[in-house]
Amino acid sequence: MKIGIAADHGGFALKATLEQSLRDLGHSVTDFGAEKMDPADDYPDFIIPLARAVADGQVERGLGLCGSGVGASVAANKVAGIRAALIHDIFSAHQGVEDDDMNILCLGGKVVGDALALELIERFLAARFTGAERHRRRLTKIQDVETAMRTAPG
User: Fold this and answer.
1) For 128-152, what is the mean pLDDT?
2) Whole-model pTM?
3) Which of 11, 116, 125, 152 is least surrounded by Cβ atoms within 10 Å, i.e. has the fewest?
Protein backbone atom coordinates (compact mmCIF):
# COMPACT_ATOMS: atom_id res chain seq x y z
CA MET A 1 0.00 0.00 0.00
CA LYS A 2 1.14 3.58 -0.65
CA ILE A 3 1.35 5.28 2.73
CA GLY A 4 2.21 8.86 3.61
CA ILE A 5 3.74 9.73 6.95
CA ALA A 6 4.42 13.09 8.60
CA ALA A 7 5.58 14.25 12.00
CA ASP A 8 6.78 17.31 13.83
CA HIS A 9 9.39 17.15 16.60
CA GLY A 10 6.92 15.47 18.97
CA GLY A 11 6.45 12.50 16.67
CA PHE A 12 9.85 12.53 14.97
CA ALA A 13 11.42 9.55 16.78
CA LEU A 14 8.27 7.44 16.36
CA LYS A 15 8.13 8.32 12.65
CA ALA A 16 11.63 6.99 12.08
CA THR A 17 10.79 3.68 13.72
CA LEU A 18 7.45 3.30 11.96
CA GLU A 19 8.74 4.29 8.55
CA GLN A 20 11.31 1.49 8.55
CA SER A 21 8.84 -1.05 9.97
CA LEU A 22 6.32 -0.21 7.24
CA ARG A 23 8.95 -0.59 4.52
CA ASP A 24 9.94 -3.94 6.04
CA LEU A 25 6.28 -5.01 5.74
CA GLY A 26 6.38 -4.20 2.03
CA HIS A 27 4.60 -0.85 2.00
CA SER A 28 5.67 2.10 -0.12
CA VAL A 29 6.20 5.03 2.25
CA THR A 30 6.33 8.72 1.32
CA ASP A 31 7.80 10.90 4.07
CA PHE A 32 6.31 14.40 4.26
CA GLY A 33 8.74 15.48 6.98
CA ALA A 34 10.09 16.60 9.23
CA GLU A 35 13.45 15.64 7.82
CA LYS A 36 15.38 16.57 10.95
CA MET A 37 14.65 17.01 14.62
CA ASP A 38 13.75 20.65 15.27
CA PRO A 39 12.00 21.48 18.55
CA ALA A 40 10.72 24.74 17.00
CA ASP A 41 8.94 23.19 14.01
CA ASP A 42 5.16 23.28 13.56
CA TYR A 43 2.98 20.23 12.85
CA PRO A 44 0.75 21.95 10.21
CA ASP A 45 3.82 22.36 7.98
CA PHE A 46 4.03 18.57 7.63
CA ILE A 47 0.50 17.33 8.31
CA ILE A 48 -1.28 19.59 5.79
CA PRO A 49 0.86 18.39 2.83
CA LEU A 50 0.26 14.79 3.96
CA ALA A 51 -3.50 15.39 4.15
CA ARG A 52 -3.53 16.99 0.70
CA ALA A 53 -1.67 13.98 -0.72
CA VAL A 54 -4.23 11.60 0.78
CA ALA A 55 -7.15 13.72 -0.46
CA ASP A 56 -5.60 13.89 -3.96
CA GLY A 57 -4.94 10.14 -4.08
CA GLN A 58 -1.15 10.45 -4.23
CA VAL A 59 -1.04 8.06 -1.26
CA GLU A 60 -3.77 5.67 -0.15
CA ARG A 61 -3.62 6.33 3.59
CA GLY A 62 -1.77 8.63 5.93
CA LEU A 63 -0.13 8.60 9.33
CA GLY A 64 0.06 11.91 11.17
CA LEU A 65 2.26 12.18 14.23
CA CYS A 66 2.90 14.89 16.77
CA GLY A 67 3.48 14.88 20.52
CA SER A 68 -0.09 14.01 21.50
CA GLY A 69 -1.62 13.33 18.09
CA VAL A 70 -4.26 15.97 18.76
CA GLY A 71 -2.69 18.73 16.68
CA ALA A 72 -2.07 16.33 13.79
CA SER A 73 -5.74 15.32 13.85
CA VAL A 74 -6.99 18.90 14.01
CA ALA A 75 -4.75 20.00 11.14
CA ALA A 76 -5.49 17.02 8.89
CA ASN A 77 -9.24 17.42 9.26
CA LYS A 78 -9.08 20.94 7.81
CA VAL A 79 -8.44 19.41 4.36
CA ALA A 80 -11.59 18.49 2.45
CA GLY A 81 -11.95 14.77 1.97
CA ILE A 82 -9.89 13.87 5.00
CA ARG A 83 -11.26 11.79 7.81
CA ALA A 84 -8.49 11.72 10.42
CA ALA A 85 -8.71 10.51 13.98
CA LEU A 86 -6.48 10.26 17.01
CA ILE A 87 -6.42 6.56 17.89
CA HIS A 88 -5.06 4.74 20.94
CA ASP A 89 -6.98 1.45 20.84
CA ILE A 90 -7.18 -1.52 18.48
CA PHE A 91 -10.97 -1.43 17.99
CA SER A 92 -11.00 2.19 16.83
CA ALA A 93 -8.02 1.63 14.54
CA HIS A 94 -10.07 -0.71 12.32
CA GLN A 95 -13.60 0.46 13.11
CA GLY A 96 -12.73 4.01 12.05
CA VAL A 97 -11.99 2.70 8.57
CA GLU A 98 -14.82 0.15 8.43
CA ASP A 99 -17.59 2.56 9.46
CA ASP A 100 -16.22 6.06 8.88
CA ASP A 101 -13.79 5.53 5.99
CA MET A 102 -10.98 7.05 8.07
CA ASN A 103 -8.01 7.76 5.81
CA ILE A 104 -5.47 9.26 8.22
CA LEU A 105 -4.51 7.71 11.54
CA CYS A 106 -3.05 10.15 14.06
CA LEU A 107 -0.79 9.11 16.90
CA GLY A 108 1.05 10.84 19.71
CA GLY A 109 4.77 10.19 19.78
CA LYS A 110 4.80 11.04 23.48
CA VAL A 111 1.72 8.89 24.19
CA VAL A 112 2.07 5.50 22.47
CA GLY A 113 5.07 3.21 22.32
CA ASP A 114 6.55 1.73 19.17
CA ALA A 115 4.91 -1.70 19.50
CA LEU A 116 1.39 -0.38 20.12
CA ALA A 117 1.78 2.20 17.36
CA LEU A 118 2.75 -0.47 14.85
CA GLU A 119 -0.14 -2.72 15.88
CA LEU A 120 -2.61 0.17 15.56
CA ILE A 121 -1.23 1.00 12.12
CA GLU A 122 -1.39 -2.62 10.95
CA ARG A 123 -5.07 -2.79 11.95
CA PHE A 124 -5.74 0.57 10.27
CA LEU A 125 -4.08 -0.52 7.03
CA ALA A 126 -5.77 -3.94 6.96
CA ALA A 127 -9.28 -2.52 7.46
CA ARG A 128 -11.65 -1.74 4.59
CA PHE A 129 -14.68 0.55 4.46
CA THR A 130 -17.81 -1.62 4.59
CA GLY A 131 -19.85 0.71 2.39
CA ALA A 132 -22.99 0.03 4.41
CA GLU A 133 -25.83 2.39 3.51
CA ARG A 134 -25.95 4.02 6.97
CA HIS A 135 -22.23 4.77 6.82
CA ARG A 136 -22.46 6.20 3.30
CA ARG A 137 -25.39 8.35 4.39
CA ARG A 138 -23.38 9.80 7.26
CA LEU A 139 -20.35 10.47 5.10
CA THR A 140 -22.53 12.22 2.54
CA LYS A 141 -23.67 14.61 5.28
CA ILE A 142 -20.05 15.40 6.08
CA GLN A 143 -19.21 15.91 2.40
CA ASP A 144 -22.19 18.25 2.09
CA VAL A 145 -20.73 20.43 4.86
CA GLU A 146 -17.33 20.46 3.16
CA THR A 147 -18.93 21.47 -0.14
CA ALA A 148 -20.99 24.20 1.49
CA MET A 149 -17.89 25.61 3.20
CA ARG A 150 -15.93 25.69 -0.07
CA THR A 151 -18.71 27.50 -1.91
CA ALA A 152 -19.77 29.87 0.87
CA PRO A 153 -19.07 33.54 0.20
CA GLY A 154 -16.41 34.75 2.42
Assistant:
1) 93
2) 0.96
3) 152
